[in-house]
């Protein structure tokens, strides 16, 4: 592959305070960079996550997105040291605006055509768990833990977990975790199908998986990712599949992939990774 032979170039998409967003050979890695609090978020973090996701989705040079946390964390939910007294300091409208921003991280992860991979090396708690669940695929480390712990502090899963988890592991099993706030261990995550593997270095494993996806025909990957939707009716699926397949049939990378298959060689896509 021509893109795979080019010299690696790492670029920082935008300078942020609470996160890092780096693009390396077609893979965008977004890192929540607050290791002193296990990558728990504050308002600034949420603003930056939303901005970074908008940027990478609009970037034609990005084929896969990896979401992770710095140090020993992934995202331990909201930073309790940065939380106001909601009842005393905010109106319902204020709170709705704040929560919408958190939900929008999940919304953007769910809505992007580019495949997303969560590299979970540590605690993914509350909304942090929902950020991981919103990704298309999860790789977990030995110290990872996913926890929808909202009920334990008298709250509901307001960031998407009550919608996401039943669709990933089934309603009954999801309610076990949602109604108790029990931990989902790395072994549980793999057994339930939430994670594809337990890795010593989840970020390295996630990037290896991202490279495998990146090096396939991009149009087919993006449309396949969009087609996989458990809420879509079969008839809607079939109608969309006709449109998407026709686009793929007319795509140069399909032509090259088919030629390479016939000629028993590796495909050589014309890409300039940055």
Characterise this structure.
It holds the Pfam family ECH_1. This is Enoyl-CoA hydratase/isomerase family protein. InterPro entries: ClpP/crotonase-like_dom_sf, Enoyl-CoA_hydra/iso. With 274 residues, the chain is an alpha/beta fold. The chain folds into 2 domains: 3-214, 2-enoyl-CoA Hydratase, Chain A, domain 1 (Alpha-Beta Complex), CATH 3.90.226; 218-262. 45% of the residues lie in helices and 15% in strands. Helix 1 links the parallel strand 3 and strand 4. Helix 3 packs parallel to helix 4 (127-134) and helix 5 packs across helix 6. The longest helix has 20 residues, at 92-111. It is globular.
Number of strands: 10
In whole angstroms, how far apart are the ends?
15 Å
The succession of helices and strands, N to C, reads: EEEHEHHEEHEEHHEHEHHHH
Briefly note the CATH topology name of the largest domain. 2-enoyl-CoA Hydratase, Chain A, domain 1
User: For the residues shown, what is the average pLDDT?
Assistant: 92
Give the CATH H-level superfamily of the largest domain. 2-enoyl-CoA Hydratase, Chain A, domain 1
Number of domains: 2
Strand order of the largest sheet: 1-2-3-4-5-7-10
Fraction of helical residues: 40-55%
Please give the oligomerization state of what you see.
single chain
Unreliable residue stretches: 1-9
Give the second-level CATH assignment, the architecture of the largest domain: Alpha-Beta Complex
Would you state the CATH class of the largest domain?
A: Alpha Beta
């Amino acid at each position: 592959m021509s893109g795979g032979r080019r010299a690696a170039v790492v670029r920082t998409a935008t300078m942020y305070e609470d996160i890092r967003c780096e693009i390396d050979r077609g893979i965008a890695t977004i890192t929540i960079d607050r290791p002193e609090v296990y990558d728990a978020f504050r308002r600034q973090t949420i603003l930056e996550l939303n901005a970074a996701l908008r940027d990478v989705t609009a970037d034609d040079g990005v084929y896969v997105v990896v979401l992770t946390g710095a140090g020993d964390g992934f995202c331990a939910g909201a930073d309790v040291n940065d939380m106001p007294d909601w009842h005393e300091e905010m109106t319902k409208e204020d709170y709705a605006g704040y929560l919408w921003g958190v939900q929008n991280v999940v919304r953007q992860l769910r809505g992007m055509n580019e495949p997303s991979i969560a590299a979970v090396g540590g605690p993914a708690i509350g909304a942090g768990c929902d950020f991981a669940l919103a990704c298309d695929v999860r790789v977990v480390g030995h110290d990872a833990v996913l926890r929808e712990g909202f009920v334990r502090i008298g709250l509901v899963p307001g960031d998407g977990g009550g919608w996401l988890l039943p669709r990933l592991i089934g309603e009954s099993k999801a309610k076990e975790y949602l109604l108790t706030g029990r931990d989902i261990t790395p072994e549980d995550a793999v057994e339930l199908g939430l994670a594809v593997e337990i890795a010593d270095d989840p970020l390295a494993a996630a990037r290896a998986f991202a490279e495998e996806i990146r090096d396939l025909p991009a149009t087919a990957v993006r449309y396949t990712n969009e087609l996989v939707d458990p809420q879509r009716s079969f008839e809607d699926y079939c109608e969309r599949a006709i449109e998407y397949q026709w686009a793929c049939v007319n795509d140069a990378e399909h032509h090259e992939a088919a030629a390479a298959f016939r000629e028993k060689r590796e495909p050589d896509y014309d890409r300039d990774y940055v």
